[in-house]
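Section 3.1 - Work completed
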Amino acid sequence: MKSSSKVIDKEPTERFEYEENFQGPIGDRKYRDVFCLIVFVAFWVGMFIIMAVGFATGTPKRLYYPKDYRGNICGMDNTKFKDKLTDEVNNNSDLDFLADLTKRTRCFFPYFHVDLEFCVEECPSQGDLEQIIDKGNCNGDPVITTYVNNDPVGQFCSYKSDSVLRRCLPSISSSKSDNDATNAAKDNEDSSTTVAKVMGDFVQSWWVYIVAIFAAVLLSFAWILLVKKFSGFMVWLTVILFFILLAVLTWYFHKQWKDSDTVSNTKKMNSDSLNAKSFKILFWIMIAVDILAVIIVIWLYKRIILAVALIEEAATAIKAMPRIVFFPLITFVLLLILYAYSIAVAAFLLSSGKPKAEEKNGEYYLEFENTSAMNYLTIYHFFGLLWTNSYIIALTQATIAGAIASCLNGENRCVKYCFYCMKCFLACLHGWMKFINKNGYIMIAVYGESFWKSTKRAFHLISRNILRVLTVSAVGDFLLFLGKFLVAIAVGIISLGILRSMNNISFYLIPTILCAVLAYAIASAFMSVFEMAIDTMLLCFCEDAERHDGSSPDREPYASERLQKYMNKNKAELKNQKEEYEPLKSANDND
């Protein structure tokens, strides 16, 4: 067990002093912030109660199953609502429109511009779309000629359609007749159909998301392992590959813009036009990103050279604990469980409205009214999701920080001591809070102090070393951002290639963006190990510089010569810039 430090008896605002028996992270710890833990547990008890209420009153099918023109939910026995609606109608016969549609799970739209929908067992597999557009005579399809209680509801023209999110949408075929029908329907492709197709693309491309997730995991692992082995080389390789992929992506968006524009002029369908416009916007966005990236890299060129040393020091610490790179997988699984639970509860809460019989033009329609109480419960549960999400991330960062701190305080004498800063006050800007937050978990891992005391001590430590902390941390974060962006772009290109080869995808660009976002999130989770290692290394150096000023042999700094040279060079450059700026500022003030 490691010995305690005198620092826990000092005021958080005081500088750190030399301690002969200081052995790094404190082993003799006590429970801190017990009140906050009690509040957190009590909040989760409330969330479980809300979950029980939602499961008892909710009907999730109402969210993803379509409705017919009278409000009946497809795929459900709507007659069970009769007992709750008898007081709202004059006669019980007014509720005869409620039907058992358990076997009718899909919704068919006989006409494009008429608010008329029917629940059917399956989407029509035959028919001519032009007959509907021209409103000519046609025979009724057996699937849609009868609806409730086998009573005929008229003869409707059927058209060949596919089920998209349980909505029957016109099929896209390569045959000439079907293409003619599709061209005839171009003016009838409204916004609701477009939205339905977009949602259908998400469902149809579900397996592409799995491929993207696995690709992101493999690329992130490969990047981390290569950085561990070849730190300096990988930093520059990441920068070079970053620009290569930016150039390839810019060229690809321009090519797809021109190709999609040509197709949209030929077919004149909304999906092709939207793809062309999307690629055009993305092309100009990439031009701006290319210019901005070149400016930033040129501006940070000298600091990137120096930052290689910091990356190498972080890689040295991670090499001592090779299995730590797998730790983000635990966080990833915990977050998946949390999100799955939260989505399930939210589905029940949002579908727990009270059924009502709404009268329109002498007929009754089934409607659902959400109560204000359920809205408040949903907000409460959503806040719990955000709180727990932050807690899991904080737990991960604190664990990694503690492991890195223990390694750095070992016999390798890379860096002797670490400091970890806790959350900044809620009045701070979000970015500053996040910066303080990340470093705060390290401080708790080292000294085991309370929430507010750790925050105060961390704030003053950073304030005393503000030039070192902000500039060095910014360069390190930028290099890691390039790695994350590299993974996201690579996965996005792979996903786009797969989606372009699928004939049943209309708006392939939207699922591609989702795959890239998922890849960036996964890469961020895995590279958080390096982020915490760099931040730990940085604050360890600041604390080590205060304790060991080199005034005597027993006060020699524990930081490596490479790290000392890097940090001191950054500090000297910033000091010179400040000295050059002060006379100019004074002259301007005098004028």
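Second construct:
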Amino acid sequence: MPQPYANRGRPIVRSFDVRCFLADPSGPSQYAYADSHLAHGILSIACRFRRLHCLFLDGHPGVMPEELVNRLASDPLGVIKPLLLLSLARCQVELPIAFFASFYLKHVVYLDVSDMPGSLKSPLIQRALSPAHLPALRILKAQGREMDNQTASLLFKSFWEQLWSVDFSRNKITDDIFDDMHQFSFPAQNSRTGDFAIEGRLLHLPEGSASFGKFCFVSESKWSVDFTHPHRHHADAPFYTAHVEDGPLPSIKPRLNGRVKIHDDSPDAIKTVFSGTAGSHAPSLEHAQGLDICEPHQGITHLYLNRNNISAAALAKVIRSSPGQLQHLECDSLTFNLPETAPPSWLSKARLSGTLGWAHVFRPVFSANLQVLRIHHSLVTQLLSLQLAGLTPAAKLWVAETHLLPRAELAYPEAFVPDMNPRLRSLVLTQIPQRSTGPLIDKLIRFLKLASIQERAIQDANATFASRHGPATLLGLRHIRLEFAPDPRDELGDELALDAAAVMDDSTTEFSFFGDSNWSSTTSSSSPSRADLSGMRDVVGAIKAYRAQTRKAYDEAVRRARQEGEGEEKVRLGEPHFHWSGRLEVSMEEGAEYHRSGYWR
């Protein structure tokens, strides 16, 4: 492009994104070329494109924050406009404290400093990372920063309710952080404004304990106890006060009606808002500051705590104590602690992951606004993940499914089902084993079947009011993602797999989740044979076969409808084919050799 035209085009550029243009010494020469031209870092780019709204330099080794700070300080004319989005994730340079106090970040709404060297503690202590310098900050990504509870607490105390999205994944955060998070970054207004007949009512008692928090219970109606109210799939009606002159109640913030989609805080979504799309103009800096995502949301609504040392009980406690404002929650690694009354057994030497007995906290009566949830698969399957020295991965799966699962089903019989929270739109289940003796497969298939039954109920509700003006309906669960752990099949020949009895034999191989129960299972031996391990079924293959079967039945129903002169819209969802029409995504961890992630329609 001729230089005059290039110069004319620069003022209209709103986004500069080099996430897919990283320097790679082993890669093509153009990457090394790019590295040499971006070695001056942010400033050289900002000086060429002075009206940028979004700047992505993820993983680029050429970023030089010291140079940026020095040059910005010598910009008396202020020709460089402040950014709205800045992403420096995985840049291997330590940000100086003065960087956070730069004028260039005064209007930043989205800041990603994940996986960078150095701690955020010093910028917080010296108040460089603070509302005084970052008054517009709403979304903070700080994954993999070796952040501990003290640093996270400093951040919550500094920003209070200013941030609405916080990502602290892959850090060193524990249960102890939740008290400060609740005190400083959760709103005081209650969002639990649901209907008693449909959802029940949450009642708090004055008593409590340190581990549980304030005691509470759900007062159930005759429908809410088993999620069967005829109007459970209706969106909320507008919220009214008794007298218009009273105005809104100061202690109540009505929840979202269930159809309003929550804000997407992903970098690409925020980039689209600030940079525009094909056929639409990017908002001006002044107009962008008035957008809803730039407004404070009275506390954290999007919370990411993946791969931290968080227990299932502590997560349940913070949900109970919250006012129900959480909309997007991710916590894929949950520690499961045995009850203190559980008798000693071989299980005391094991490490358990997952959640049992807390499915109810994801009901709307607790989680009034929750639409997106990423969590350990045991929420649905009741199958804990087991780590026990001396057992191969395959043997651990076998022991967990044959020994832990039957007892978990007895002690904690309630698993999460779609109609437990029909306001939930997206559910991601993590750390799912790829091998099963059968029960895990049955539970996942049952969940997909229940999702199909839910969408049939929503379809019927829509049909009931099709001929007249009626209430809007919820969308229900429309996205399920199954994230599988590595396949243990390559280790089936290991002799350690046959030594489960020795590992579990410490005077008793029986245990109970109950403190005073002598119940024991005689349905399986304590040690798997090689045939047991090699005979474990492929979970991914079974799910794929089930989806193919239900899709075939649905397609056959469509074919018959067309032959009878009816359209596809006349085919009812749910029974008898039970094909769920939502988006099912299956993801394999890196290293898996087959069934790469994909969408199974």
